[in-house]
Amino acid sequence: MRANNMTRRLFEKLVNNPQSDGGLSDAQARHEPANFLRHAASISMSKIADGLIDPKLVLSWLLTHLGASSFFVGLLVPIREAGALLPQLFTAPRVQAMERRKWAWVAGAAGQGAAAAGIVLTALTLEGSAAGIVICALLAVLAVSRSVCSVSYSDILGKTVGQSRRGSATGLASSLGAGAVVIFALLLMTGLLERATLVIAAIALAAALFFAASTLFSTLWEEAAVGETGTAALEQLKILRTDAQLRRFIWARGLLTSTALAPPYIVLLGAQAGQGTFDRLGALVLASSIASLISSWLWGRLADRSSRKVLMFSAVAGTLALLAAVLLDLVGMSGTLWALPLVLFVLMIAYHGVRQGRSIYLVDMAPEGSRATYTAVSNTVIGVLLLGSGIFGALASLAGAKVTLLIFAAMSFAAIVVAKGLKEVGD
């Protein structure tokens, strides 16, 4: 169904340059306003669910509460990151062979919902190592399902939303999602509800939201395309030899993983300074979600103008935040109530800028019909880097949190230089 007048008016208020065709076919352009809102709503629900089932914070607390050993807690983030990124090299050819690729995202979201529902059931029935084994296995299912969503989404977004409006769709979704997670964080901090009950209820809500997002996304109007014969998994890596811009983009994105890897070391500085309340679950969720709420939509709008500059500005913000953390600790201020929470807030703004900038840059840079391959290759390389980061972080931490943060600051600073050399790919 074509967008009605109210849908079009809302669309025009939310985007830059609504009159441009954005590189869409005539049929897709007619359906773009309604598709834009479906993207925003579906991705909002998905992002709320992500916040409610965050492995770094929520699931790690849940496993500890259930009596699972630290071994299983330590597996959560590697399973989540590797499972979401590494399979894309193998799933991309299958996605490219589909006439309507929205069904890959629909299936991936439903798979995440089923895995989240399984985690709820496990939390209610199992304890100790049994709970750890089952929850880690279900997280692997969730991560692989997420990889299907990730590898298909850039191509779907490129086909159904115009070039100068894609950042607005994803940025709006991130901000709406973060606003809901703020409420969850505040509930955790108030103590009005028993924490275990609240966490299990939140994961159940995440499951429902994944299913709802899957259902809504299935109504997206996507023009049928000729299914392409997928390139063999390892054959896809050949584009790294032929596309210098892709190589530079991956370098920039790899260096900017510092914004994702640094928060635990900021928490460690706070703990060493005697700031015992800083590492509480609610405070961490709140800092991340407020940063996303404030910044994601603005980052998205800026990415529609220049996603390259978003990557550069995010690198600058990340560098300043990491250096500030070290400086505050050196002058003895890291134990104050405001210092490290403020640093973490700025760092999370940089992190969300990286997410917006790299997503939109890749969609705009990749040739039409090859977006799934470009996404898969990029994510696979970054997945390998993130797996190696566990060993790197462990070795660096032997020298102390401050040294580790200085290394991450240097990575972020180098990303400014690398991102500056990227070509502008916006409309």
SSE order and pairing:
Blueprint: H1 5-14, H2 26-52, H3 55-65, H4 70-85, H5 88-96, H6 102-125, H7 128-160, H8 166-190, H9 195-217, H10 239-242, H11 244-255, H12 258-261, H13 263-272, H14 281-330, H15 339-365, H16 371-397, H17 401-420
CATH topology: Growth Hormone, Chain: A
Q: Ranges with pLDDT <50 over ≥5 residues?
A: 275-279
Let me know the number of strands: 0
Structural Rg: 21 Å
Distance between the termini: 28 Å
* CATH class category: Mainly Alpha
The coarse overall form would be globular
* Proper CATH architecture: Up-down Bundle
Structure commentary:
The protein is an all-alpha fold and 427 residues long. It has one domain (28-225, 234-420): Growth Hormone, Chain: A (Up-down Bundle), CATH 1.20.1250.20. The chain has 17 helices and no strands. It has helices spanning 5-14, 26-52, 55-65, 70-85, 88-96, 102-125, 128-160, 166-190, 195-217, 239-242, 244-255, 258-261, 263-272, 281-330, 339-365, 371-397, 401-420. The model is unreliable at 275-279 (pLDDT under 50).
